[in-house]
Each structure stands twice: as structure tokens, then as C-alpha cells.
Amino acid sequence: MCIPCSCPEECQRMHDVKNFNNDTVYCGDFEISISRYCRLLGDTSEDVPVSPCRQFLHSCHLMFAYASEVVPVSLCMLFVYSCLLMCAFVYSCLVMGASRAGHGASSEQIAIQGKKAKQFNVLKSVVSKWYDSNNCLTMLKVLFRDHVDNGKLSRIINTMDLLNELVKRDHLHVNNLALLCDTISITKHFVLQRKIQEILPSFPDVKEGTISEKFTIHRQKLMKCGMALTPRDVTEIDGLYNIPLKHYTDSWSMIADLENRLVIINGDMKDFIDILKKLENQFPWKALRDELQSIQSSN
What we know:
The chain is mainly alpha-helical and 299 residues long. Helix content is 61%, strand content 5%. It contains 13 helices and 4 strands. Helix 2 (52-70) packs antiparallel against helix 3 (73-133) and helix 3 packs across helix 6 (159-168). The model has no long low-confidence stretch (mean pLDDT 77).
């Protein structure tokens, strides 16, 4: 780039400056400060990218050198400053444009994520109210025993706390509702999906009998067992395992207790299956015992 020297006007000339790593250049005994050019044009070392302003000005330096020989130096200086101002203006416009475009895209993305988060919170509220109103918390604790440790499960007092724990452990989140779909299928609360679709139309249809990928076969069969047990069955099993009776409130509290006592274990359910054989109500149990036996054999 051509820089005018500060010599008297009659002997002024243009200096072709190619290295902006130093703040000064010399014209005989005179020092010429080029710090302002260094700040604008940046490092000129080979391994540092060349700025657009410096590229433009460098491409003009031959023209400046030629002009200094045929026109007064003052006009050359005016031309230099004009080019600097033009480069600064163009560069600032490009930066501001890119910044605004990025800000617009970022704001739109934030708005979309905010809308999804709001829908997800409403969804959790609908699911929580539904299962709580149907007294299903104990059943859900049995279902999610493989997803949440038992110590934490024992302290959960409502479905919302359970859902938040599943979110915390990344089993359930705004972009993946597969666990919720499988929960509806296994618990057979298919009306719930219609309530969810009222606020989230994209929620998929859940079909009965869908094989879950989020719950083990053992857990799915155990859920079938809990749904098939009648209050009379629960009382009979209570009498066979407990003296005195524990008076389980439902099949789910009984299953949870037997799992805590390691009576029901994935891969070792022989004792529990033998107990089922002693129940008086034999009709619904043969197929279920066969299913539980198949789990025992496969493990």
C-alpha cells in the first residue's frame, strides 16, 4: 500500500508499504507513523488470513505509486483516505448484515424451541393428571422400575415427579416421546393419546399389542400379571407369603414388595410361578403362567 511521507511538500513522495507489523516507516531521517493503518489492515504475516480491506488497498498500491509521479501528493493522500473510508463503510455493512441475519435465525430457533418446551410441559401435565386421577402411580412405579432406582421411586408421590425424573435421566424428552407411547400401550390407557393429540397433533397413534423397545420382556409380562390379578388373588398370595398378612392395597403394591424382597427376579421366578399354580381362580392364569415360564426358560 502507498503511504505519503511527512517531508516538506516539495519533496514529499509515496512509500509502498507491504509490511504492517511495524508501527513506523522511515523516509530519510523522518519517521512516519502507520499505526492507524496497522489497526485497520491487521497482521500481514503469511499464516494470517488477509482482510478484505487490505486486499482491496493492496491491489491499488501500484496505481497510487504511479499517480504520485504525475499528480500532487495531497491529491494522492485524499484518494487514500477516501478508499479507507469506503472500505471501512463496506466492511461495517457486511458485518452488521451478517450479525442481523444470524440474530434473526437465532431468534426464530429460540422461538421454536420455546414453543416445543411449552407444549412438552402441557403434555406432562395432561399425562400426570390422567394417571393420578386413575390412581395409577403404584402401577407406573412397577413399570419404570428399570428406569429409575428403587430408592428414588419410593420418595415419588405423584406422576409429575415421576415424569420429571424420567426427563432428568434422559429417558423422556421433548424430541423423543417413544417412552410415553410405549407406556400408553402397556398400561392400555388409550384414551390418553386422544387427550395428548388435542394439544400435540403430531403425537403418533398408539396401537394395542405394539411390542415395546423401551421395556424388557420381563417387565411387560409382569405388567400383564399385575393387570390380571384380582383383589382375591392378591389376598391369597399375601397369605402364602406373609405371616401376618400385609394387606396389600392392590396387585402393584404386592408386586413392588415382592420385587424388593427378591421373590420376583428377572430370570428367577420359579417360586412366584409355583405360587400362581396354587390360586383357586385357574381360568386366566394358565396362559399367563406359560408366558412367565417362557421368560424363566429364556433366561
